[in-house]
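Good day; I would like, with your permission, to put a structural problem before you. A protein sequence and the structure tokens that stand for its backbone fold form the material at issue. Thank you for your consideration; the sequence and its tokens are set out here:
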Amino acid sequence: MKKTLILFVLTFVLVSCNQSKDTEYVINGNAEGIENGIKVRLAQIDEKGKQVFRDSAVVMDGKFTIKGAVEEPSVYFLSADGTPGNMVFMLENSNIQIDFNTEIPMESKVTGSESNKSYEDFQNGMLKFREEGTAIMTRFKELGQDPAPETRDSIRKAMDDMRQRQLAYPLSFVQDHNDSYFSLNLIQLESSRPTFDIIKYKEIYESFPTHLKESKRGQLVKQKLDELYKAYEKTAHLEVGKIAPNFESQTPDGKTVSLNNLKGKATIIDFWAAWCGPCRRENPNVVNIYEQYHDKGLEIIGVSLDGAPNQKDPKKAWLDAIEKDGLKWNHVSSLKYFNDEVAQLYNIDRIPATYILDEEGKIVAKNLRGMALALKIKELLDTP
């Protein structure tokens, strides 16, 4: 009976210990150099993208302890009052040791969090890109003020290549670490970037194990991916490489014209309005491009979004702006503001906006302005 009781107690203790390890986290921190009484704060980014403080501890004798629980591993931030910046790590229910770097918090050391290893792997990969970029810039400076043009071009190409690989790195990392909670967090962070490739990330997400997809973070990521995919489907026909959808609209004298009848060897569809300050400031640049390349086959179709509620006579404002700015190309508008049918077809929610088409009517670029627009037209029409 006594042996049975001892076994029962030992079993209870072991189970209790395991439950504590699985359901709680204990952060033991070293914070040498931080005065007694200074607070260390634990924070997280909420679903709206705002940093929210979750807990804090007071430093005593260079040490602090924070205890709590999380539903699943997630990205957290740790900072100390009076210390610039914060450190980032993956917090999970386990015993975690943090050696807080007061000078460079991002270089703090974390042990005891399995999910944090993926985050560290990612950071090490990003560090290599930073080191590569620094090496390229150091080489450029060593060449002096006037390096040879071919050398300058070679260095610029090396830098551009490095930046492209850096932009592609998060996607390749998630693909190679599809069993990681950090990868879920990384997808969520990357989804706000304009370069986010919804098709590829959606495919990778489907390869994640079930327990990750069914986790709270996994469900949030799925919801975000589904939202972005729905938005993508609405504009898929407007992606670079697609044939620009044809449209019909009215000229200032009431005639109906179509894109297919007006496009040239290169075509700019320019969404603008008389009331749009940035559009009017860009117009001189567009005029210069038109004068330089119209004889080589450039056509421009100005789609006006005049008809704003505060315009007393939108048509007069439209025509006056055309004359004042010297816009000698084709113009169309329904004078319905952002409800213009062409604007809706091309998913225009702000102006200025441009679509650049090649001779076949294929979209080759979008929303270029200034020198970038001039260089693209030069590429299309000056290339033998």
In short: The longest helix spans residues 149-176. DSSP finds twelve helices and 15 strands in the chain.
